[in-house]
Write the structure tokens for this entry.
Amino acid sequence: MMIYKVLRGPEWRQFQDQWSTTGAPVDLADGYIHFSTAETLSGTLEKHFSGEDGLWLLACEAEALSDALRWEPSRGGALFPHLYRALRLDEVLWSRPLPHGPNGHEIGALP
């Protein structure tokens, strides 16, 4: 199953430079890296990134992240993937800019 991580431009550049990340400030504060599923991504963008430009969407295969990935209840009881270790750049299958348009972030088709 594909899961998704949203990073701001500087966070994504730092990740690329260092080849691993422990996430954004919210991830550091919570002690794990927050991911979204295709079904929860738009809610995540609306709640945590509303109106922000310069975002990047990263995709990872959940099964490849091993037992460090836990599915835990969050918004409305939905299960969200949380990674309890650093994410390595080689675990990112693809990345793309996530533009902000007149109707919010333009997610486009997700595999």
User: Anything to note?
Assistant: Residues 2-103 form a domain with the ADP-ribosylation fold fold (CATH 3.20.170.20). The longest strand covers residues 2-8.
